[in-house]
């Protein structure tokens, strides 16, 4: 019998790719998603890729009673991967209470009910935002966490603290937090990818929508940072590589290979790329010109960050494989498919 994994936020960008990789690894997947930033047809596209239709339940994890009923309905879940959260940095600055309520109440409901229903293994979708603007690069797991630059970032830091303290208090639970850097790209099938509602908050969807003619021009937020070309630097990781890290983390917990009951790992490529470098690479691999302009810095953004992935490479046995060029090309192929561009 296949081991059953709950993926919250499983119709979202990273969640959907992780569902595909879990299915490929032989797991039975159940998704919870409220479709606030995704659509139900993602489930159809997951099935097209894998040949397996994941079970899907639609509700928000803040609803304690519905979540309790869910665990009663699915008594064989062995592990949880928790993606479901509001995630736009800019919006979190404008609507902090929405972010604290959605991201933290959902997490606490999950932890309380997984303990009650005998689920022992928990993988959390964390973020490099917990490091703030690091004093030293690259960022290792020993890099001190700093005060977050945004309410979104702070929800990730507080969530990690909640998980750490819960694991200390609840000896039945083991957890891994994956602090990932900047996920980009799409599945090579072009059947799933990043499709934000409204104006994109992330850079690559804005690039691909501009290239597709949906946006007049791309805004680059600041060119006066202390970086080689003045634009902000991030560690951009292919979403399929990132999804595979979650499978490895689940296997680590199920096989009881974790060295501590709560662990955390940086998930990135180990290399930084500037916004302008990303734009130029996109133009190079796609042959599509981009109309872009430099505008003022955006509230909540940090100057530069990229990962030291030694711990993930060594302890998890995971490593990013895709190049920046092929990742950006996959994002463009996804955009073209969504927009019916030849």
Automatic annotation (TrEMBL):
Enzyme Commission designation: 5.1.3.2
Cofactor list: NAD(+)
Oligomeric and partner information: Homodimer.
Protein name (Swiss-Prot/TrEMBL): UDP-glucose 4-epimerase
GO biological process, one term: galactose metabolic process
GO cellular component: a single term: cytosol
Top class in the EC scheme: isomerase
Organism of provenance: Prolixibacter bellariivorans
Reactions accelerated catalytically: UDP-alpha-D-glucose = UDP-alpha-D-galactose
PANTHER family in the record: UDP-GLUCOSE 4-EPIMERASE (PTHR43725:SF47)
Pathway: Carbohydrate metabolism; galactose metabolism
Family of the protein in this entry: Belongs to the NAD(P)-dependent epimerase/dehydratase family.
Molecular-function annotations in GO: UDP-glucose 4-epimerase activity
Sequence ranges assigned to domain NAD(P)-binding in this UniProt record: 6-327
Keyword annotations: Carbohydrate metabolism, Isomerase, NAD
Pfam family name, one: GDP_Man_Dehyd
